[in-house]
Records
---
Amino acid sequence: MTYISLYQNINKCINVFFSMILGKIIGKTTTSSFKFIVSNKAKRFEFIQVNHSDYGYVLCQIVELERDSEKTIAKCSVIGYKESGIIKRPRIPFEPEMEVLKAEDSFISDIIQLNDSKDGAYIGLLDGKHIKVNIDLKKLLTKHIAILAKTGAGKSYAAGVLLEEIIEKKVPLLIIDPHGEYSKLKYKNDEDGNLMKKFGVIPRQYSNIREYGDSNINSDMRPLRLNALLSHQELIHLLPKMSGTQTGLLYNALKDSNEVRFNELLLNLEAEENNAKYNIMNHIDYLSNLNLFSNSFTSYNELIQSGRCSIINLKGINPDVQEIIVYKLIKDMFEARKLEKIPPFFLIIEEAHNYCPERSFGETRCSKIIRTIASEGRKFGLGLCVISQRPARIDKSVLSQCTTQMILKVTNPNDLRAVYNSVEGLTFEAQDEIKNLPIGTALVTGVVDMPLFVEIRPRKTMHGGHAVDILPSSTDGDFFEKIDNFEEKGLLPLIKPKISLNDLQLMSQQKIKSVDTLLIPGYLFICKDKHKEF
């Protein structure tokens, strides 16, 4: 029985070895590429290993497959081998007729350094393999990241996965959330059970989430108040572009004070005799009436704390007001960080093309400060993540500073061109694949020296970026049937009498002393008569 078992084990090992052989190298080889005739199952972007006479096993990757009636030829690129912990590319080409093998998981993980570490953020599995991909948070939080994809391709979902990992490492987070998608980090994901088992993920919720915004829109949010102590330069930056005369009037009104106080400024402008003052007063009155600026503003140490995720929920707020909030908030945060008044933190800007657009699309109030953070933030411990569905519309200087990028499916030609220009080391084959990526798969660059295709893991928390289903279904019933209590927070529509008070005076022979208004509740019915409605 012992000899039979030994024979079976040897035979099994031989079968496994031969199943790993994909073919043999043919034709000319270089230090960066080669071809081989495929004799077994092989697919595009599959990792392979080839034994080199001088360097041992070298990791390579299939970048393209060509097939005719007789054979299949694979084009491959050479990734390298490891020496003293560094990935190096061979300086001598492979010899022809060398056998090409499927790369073992342990060999792939060792070469491209995807092993678990305490500073790693687990974002998913290497596409086609059960190898965990971890992003080094030390590099990420100081060198910035961009998450780019077309609408519906999963960029907000991928961002949520990354945020979960950062929250667990107790890194302070500040999220600029224009659509109110990230509040779901407070709730556990109970929907993707089988998928979670595959990826080794356990559902959880986070209690250290605080949401700030307009409490009139959502009563669960804390009100956000900005520092009312504006410098002269900040005020001019917040106001629309003014003529020379208007700028002169404003400076004249500000000359006696170091700080801006709206009421005092309006009084000083009122004293001016030039009619150009009225346009300036209108804009200043608008800023004052926003009720954003306060001497009792939201503390920066309240927003930025170890282990806390602060969400600035801008849902339902006018885009012009959003610009003011983002500009003042992150400018003050950056200044506080430079003076080390707050701990190092990570800033996430969703829909970044709205706040720092490419200059050909125009400037916003917050364009300049975001460019400054992108170029200088890492020196002061301020990491940046920009998320966008329109890469072509993001400021190129901001995008170029993001050395790590998660790129999901992109199809727009202008956006593709922007991605190609901003990502270093992106091969032509990888560029071509971006258009064909399935939902949930991302091309990740900057983790290592080569782009990786990663299947993003399921979220531990609920996803808040689902589109609203506007198609009625048989189970949903009518929208109005679901309403138990109707509460109107504005004016109710009224059907006014056709006869006015003046009409009554004219028709009456006696003087009418008073008129009482009686409101009668009524219903509005939509009636059908054959093919008409009234």
---
Amino acid sequence: MASLRSPYDPRNAEMGVFQALLSARKEYGGKKIVLHDADDRKLSYDDIIRAAFALGSALKKGTKRGEAVGLMLPTGAGAIITFFAINAYGRVPAMLNFTAGARNVKAALRAAQVKRIITAHAFIEKAELHELVGELKSEAEFVYLEDVRAALGTRQKAAGALGPIMPWAVSSSPDPSSPAVILFTSGTEGDPKGVVLSHRNIVANVHQILAHVPEALKLDDILFSPLPTFHCFGLTAGALLPLLGGMRSVLHPSPLQTKLIPKRVEETGATFLFATDTFLNQYIRACTGNELGNLRYAVCGAERVRDETRQLVRRRFNVELLEGYGATEAAPVISVNQPSHNHHGTVGRLLPGMEVMFEPVPGIEKGGRMLVRGANVMQGYLSPSKPGELQLLPSGWHDTGDIVVRDDEGYLTIKGRLKRFAKIGGEMVSLAVVENCASTLWRDHEHAAAVLPDKRKGEQIVLLTTFPKADRSELQRWAQDHGVNELSLPRKIFQVPAIPVLGTGKMDIGGVQKLAAEIAARNEAGAQAAE
């Protein structure tokens, strides 16, 4: 079934997120199955909307309109229904990263002034989060979905029955510029900040994506997402895009279940898979048959896609990989390759309705620091140091902090985060180039570069690798054969059992830096003791 997508029109984003769900139900039919959960439940628009109205009617007690309400649940129907339930009654879901540790979660609660957290007994039990809950109890009240459902009364059930028929009688439409969700940065560069996305931001990004890849997404497509909904890629692309765009979303509670996910992709007949490069590589290697063979596309973001991954998925399953780029602050998609214009090594062209400018950076000849603006770009940040105080963006421009090159056709190439450059001998060297060299030479292993102080040159690059036989001289020979600048070689190579990663699947830059410093300190202490 073809999907007739309209060109991007910013006026289509002038509605609340829950109103966009109601609009999708009206357009595609209330009985259409649009959500497939890990327990094999298949929910229609009517099922989701009824549950959201009933649950939201109960969850609103003890809170006021505009208040941030914490949501701590795994990717699945429960998280999505609760997200809409909170939204339907004018509260703002704050998506908590339960993998970030108590310190970061506390900082997030403080930034958004969250006093109530919605979760589930079964989830806390299965994920073994009792210790985290214990540490957070002094910060916020916990509300468990099982208890709320068991206590649903006549009024809540009536709201569930009446809502889909007369939604205006149960909830009111919010101002599109009002907050729709709060997500949080990883906290690897300090305390996590709250990213406040409005209804307009979220709905606009969905319409931008649909208009950008009209030939790719069809109404009978099935989009599989194991990505966490506390991460904007998992929330917008994995869940809201299919729901608001009339397609089916298959959700999986954890991206770490590498052996189970390929089987579910096959069983559910998924045609799209959302993943990061790290996770997709693991899924491919876990396949024993043709588990990913029904996919038309794999869409990767959140980290650079390696050539190895692209070639592997094409060779094993003849699946095209589309690489994109985004930021939580942009709800999140900024650019993505299109099936008819898929330029490997780039992250595609800007989504419609976005503006971009580049600021020059001393020491970097090609490209500049990229700033973006558009209907999908956030309202501003919330900081733990200034709880509840929204820090607006100057003139609506968001500084991505990434060094980016745009070619004559508009394709963007990410050179790396400005904070992931080392200054060696007066030259700026990207850590991503160092990692690319190692990944090309030692394909079956993981690699991460870090910057450490150097007494002579100011800074030095070291490489962490899971390859036990990694040898610097071998890397040096490869670099010379391929014309790679000598400065892009690591001074030292440290073998490690695993590269630190975040719950989202992205490299934990702070963790990598810390581990590299610890190993270097141990090695130096050992050398001094030997003397």
---
Amino acid sequence: MKTSIATVSISGNLREKLDAIAKVGFDGIEIFEQDFIADTGTPREIGNMIRDHGLEITLFQPFRDFEGLTGDARTRAFDRAKYKFDTMVELGTDLILVCSSTRPDSLGGIDRAADDFNELGQIAAERNLRVGYEALAWGRHVNDHRDAWEIVRRADHPNIGLILDSFHTLARKIDPNTIRRIPSDKIFFVQLADAPLIDMDFLYWSRHFRNMPGEGDLAVTEFMQAVAATGYDGPISLEIFNDQFRGGHPEGLARDGYRSLVALMDDVKRAEPDIKIEVPSIPERVTVEGVEFIEFATSGEEATALAQLLKSMGFAHAGDHISKNVALWKQGDIHVVLNQETTGFAHSAYVTQGTTICDVGLNVGNAAATSHRATALGAATFDQPVGPGEMDIPAIRSVGGSVMHFIDDQSGLSDVWSVEFTKSTDKPVTGAGLRRIDHVAETMNYDEMLSWSLFYTSIFDMHRTPMVDVIDPDGLVRSQAIKTRDGGARITLNGAETHRTLAGSFLAESFGGAVQHVAFATDDIFATARHMAAHGFEPLPMTGNYYNDLQARFGLETDQLGQMKDLSILYDEDADGAFYQFYSRPFGGGLFFEIVQRIGDYDGYGAPNAPFRIAAQKRLMRPKGMPRR
């Protein structure tokens, strides 16, 4: 498989784009005309510069409004084409994209367009060039790849072929399986883009909201399966127009693009094992059983206060590391690690961010395969020296520079707690009924959400749920959950657009910290809350107005509502079930814990309660002396 990306897909000038594209492993680029024109080099110098980066120019684009013209307009169109052909020769590329005309004065008719392309093919052949025709979803007369293919077929010239773009086909809801009937030698090039499902003008949708395959809602995998079934073995390229990407980091965008292509083609190969396209051999998406542990970087009085908080929540000090200042706290299947080392990664995280969750461990089906797939998809590995008696557990870098470790049962890595930790001699503690980690909530800048969503869904067998808006008194936070099919592992991504929101202030105060809160699951939230209260736990208090409104909305029994009010328990329900939750008070730079109980098939996270939770947290976190609004 030859991977390619259009230079319009990422930010920066042409030279910055080339550096980023080459660094992450692409084979080639579609050079966008604006990038070429804006550069100071001559066409020959630019072509040589691209090849010096180890890249080839897979396509020159776009050439607009060519077919269906008459008189002087037609003559000028052919003159423009000849100029572009001469430029291509200097650049050192042999394929140009011609998109279907949008000119108001262009005439329809498949035979007329075919005649235009036959003549253009003869001119291209004189220079050993090829012309690819693409149907724009908003084309004046041609907006369907089936019509574009008929024009190419009737043009009947070896130098004229078809260019397919997933957006133009899928946006118009054209069945991608119609592609299977097109001869592979007449498909000159394939462009891929995903997009969220939005009901809007095709042109505006395409120019502003495209994203990488796997980041949107279009059936890009099915589209590519149809292409692969033809026997096509040419470049697979990304063409992404996205306002958010225009201000992003070139290398990060290029890495996301490469990750999306490799993951997509791996999916296609598994669905169509007989396809001829060569695809890198990587392990299949990995099963996540749950969150194995969370690790805090902490120190001194903050570590003491955190340990006391855990004790009030029913956690027991289960042991200490054999050679490091690291303590293990446990309850049910939950492992919480407090790392007070004065060297190494955790110490660096503490110095930078204060008490923070620096590491999350996932229990996976195969730790080695997980690491292999992650690195093949561009994830950065994490390594630090392994001391005597310690286990070498594979890990990668995750959100905000944090670490993610992979633990499995089959390799024995799940024995880390007995191998690396001595058993505590503390007096046994009665737990509060917390069983496992329900979800981990990660906070990031909003413009990073697509990237991290792709990160999780391309590596793991997890899927995205619809994005929801969380109303903060000082702004809006976008939230999206990534979860396994059985709900055994859940990660929520919360995107902040302003530092005034609670999520945004957490990012600012922690210098980009990732995990802001962890939710623990219980089977009896009332018993858990009473046990914790008896051991000194102070929940986040809710207002009386909240409970009065709750009564009006759901008609809860008076006794039940009274208990919820006394214990600061929040509630939500939907057609599938119900959800109880309560929170710790904020600690550190805005960290907090959540306790949840799911009833029936409730699959959400209590989003309607978020504004009231945030308001309560902000009341407690307001700096002393700061006037109330």
---
Amino acid sequence: MIGRYTVENITASKARKSMKLPLDPTPPDIAAHRDAARALLREGKPAEALAAAERAHRAAPDDWEGWQILSACLLASQRAAEALSWIERILVERPGQPDALANRAIVRIRARDMAGALQDAEAALAAKPGLTHLWGTLGLLRQRSGDLRGAIDALRTGLAADPANVGMMVRLGEYLRQANRPIDAIALLERATALAADNVAAWTNLGVALQQAGQIDAAKAAYEQALARNPASAEIATNLGIIERGRGEWDMALLHFDQALAVKPELAEALWGKGAALIRLARLDEAEAHFHRAVALHPDSAEPRWSLGLIDLTRGDFETGWTRYEWRSKLPDFPSPRRNFAQPLWLGNAPIEGKSLLVHWEQGLGDTVQFCRYVPLLAACGARILFAPQTRLAPLMRGLDGDFELVGLDARARAFDYHVPLMSLPLALGTRVDTIPSGAAYLRADPDLVSAWMARIGQEGFRVGVSWQGSGTEQAGGRSFPLSLLERLAQIPGVRLISLQKGTGTEQLEDLPPGMSVETLGDDFDTRPGAFMDAAAVMAQCDLVISCDTAIAHLAGALGVPIWVALMHAPDWRWMLGREGCPWYPGMRLFRQTTRNDWASVFAAMARELAAMVGRPEELA
């Protein structure tokens, strides 16, 4: 491979004899031709530069400075092998010559000999720190070797010598972002865009840094600037699609993903993004066809197969859906811990009678609340069950019936025969829609907390616990709703709305419509160790809970408390399609948007039902 051999055994005299070019019959002015070669190189004219360098060489064939200019021109002309021959000749004549080492570093980069290139760049700059352009190369080489801090230091040194070098700014901005310093990256990349407004890389990297810093509107604007300058970039269009997807703007996301796929039909991120947008737009048939095409294009990729599983589960096809859902473990960014155990994975494919089985949590708190129902069933298989939920949920899980041992994730050190992720249990136990274990409440609130909250809340009126916002992701995905939409319910005589909200979303309590009242439970609500302990006790005092699609809805269902859930037009897979009742929770009623973003009709229906329930239908006539 080019750049991986040495020439220590070649003498300088032999090299000269073998590499001389024919002498020009009329020797030119050597300095003038060398100056011309350098100027033409700076102007981006490598062919003309090479011609000038060759004329200079013919006049002075034994001058190593001429070899240096000649090798640089050959490099610029993409003739790396010939350039390397001259470079090696210089290094035989003048070992450690920094310009030659710098050029050899470039040759080695092109030959993918990154270790050799790094060695040459380090040596060249140690001997001649003024090789300003090489600091950028050194930064790249250090980053690729895993030395991100060293890469940042190299680029800072280079920029100190050449403060207007936009290329180094862009690269340094990217490395700062990789080092989780997006604010520093933003400042540098904004400077780069000010100096070079047409630099697409600067705008693109600025968008990525802004997105990492959570400045979504600014990130979108930066990507739009980049795309305006390079409309054919599938990658930039995909970045914009991802931004719009995060904002819940599914139509715009679809537009950008289609734009990307028109340029690069096999671009993976755009394929997955388009499919996700189609699902959110409730266009399941199109999404299914799209993901089948994605599987054909990327047979080994997990995303389209997992997404097909979501579609299957949404339609109630559990037999196929649970199997495809297992592809989640191969997703590159699936929000679930990766756990590697020496013991084998159990998916119902082996008898476990007399064996020990570790069931470990995955995904969110609501997922654990929903699927912990399977843990007691495993004991009926004759196995010893170790259950490791999230640490925050361990106190709540003590109210789960069944014969199992509650453990932490230090259970890795315990002896067990098999392990299984919690959300693989429906597959392992062969769950179909009509066999979902949903007969009775399977969690209990702490009795002492129930008594304490009973004294604080009292038993007056019709008590409705309300939760309107989940995580930021859920809000962007349309799963949350504005608290003000419950105004008509609050106006029904005798109805008390009691907030179950904690943290995000509570700011809406400060901006209620005139006359709307929502009771709060004080600063000590859900502050004790263990998630949802107070929430569960308060729910036990409620006649009804109304919630968006979040963990509170699952908790109410698991406790057997009557629960109404407001669902977006294209709901999460577990709520399936067209059902008013929920096979997962017998006490749950689903209120679905009939058209996208139409929450008003959902809460108008709830208000009518609640007025009838409390015997005041005339209030909403």
